[in-house]
Amino acid sequence: MNARRRLLLAGFFVALPWPTASTWANPVQPPALMLSGVYRPGIPLEAYWLSEKYDGLRGYWNGQRLLTRGGQPIQAPNWFTAGWPSVPMDGELWAGRGRFEQALSTVRQQTPDDDAWRAIRFMVFDLPAHTGPFTQRIPAYQQLVKTLAQPWVQAVPQEKVNSHADLMARLDNMVNSGGEGLMLHHGDALYRAVRSDDLLKVKTHEDAEARVTGYVPGQGKYTGLMGALLVQTTDGRRFRLGSGFTDAQRKQPPALGTWVTYRFRGLHASGLPRFASFLRVRDDMNPTPSEPASNQRQP
Fold first, then answer.
1. Which residues neighbour 102 within 8 Å (Cβ) at sequence distance 6 or greater?
2. Of 53, 160, 203, 251, which one is the catalytic site residue?
3. Is 146 a catalytic residue?
4. Tens digits of residue pLDDT in 194-227
5. What totals of helices (H) and strands (E) does the chain contain, helices first?
6. Distance from C-alpha of 155 to C-alpha of 142, rounded to nearest angstrom
7. How far apart are CA 222 and CA 54, in angstroms?
């Protein structure tokens, strides 16, 4: 790098007011969650249950309090969790199809807004402490939700799918209806806090999380703004993420150390994503004051 370019880069990073990571108060130990793989043709679908993939924020009720997947306490109104059981529940905090930003804005507030929380549903899809296979856990969580009798707590419906063609037709219908995608859950699977084919997401595109490690200055119409994020995947691969941003996000880009979600279309031979595009900041996975970014739980 020549001297002139070093000076330009230095001026860029000094002049631009880079943000600091948003935080959540009083983190606890992150919950041990079951994590999903990605569906591939050839998977024996007769062994799986099918449900909607809700475009919300993962919520974990540990029997006493509601947590994000990163272990940050969620400041829900007292009425929202009143009467909830002492057994853990795994689910999604959801505001409806196409309303992820509304759900995020509501859930991240440290002072809960009652009116905003009236629009949130806790979509229960599993019971982590139940020792039986998923086929047995389905009626267990459905009965538990029925016993609660709270309209904002709902049991995720599960159904069977017969073939890949049937699955793709259902995926098209879901997306055309404004949904994000589908989930497949192996009927014989125990609840294990690992990423495996026991749980699979089915979407029209692939997505993943990466952590922001740096910035590339913009050029041309983006001079003086962020041109691309430097990010690192959960397996240590690094690449530039330069598309999918609004002008406002380029002026105030995601903070160093925060997690972002990106979309992509398959992988290069190197293992890096093809046509990667920024989707959103994962505020529920951001670093906290007592836990540096390098020690955050992997998504």
1. 95, 96, 116, 119
2. 53
3. no
4. 999 999 999 887 778 899 999 999 998 899 999 9
5. 7, 14
6. 5
7. 35
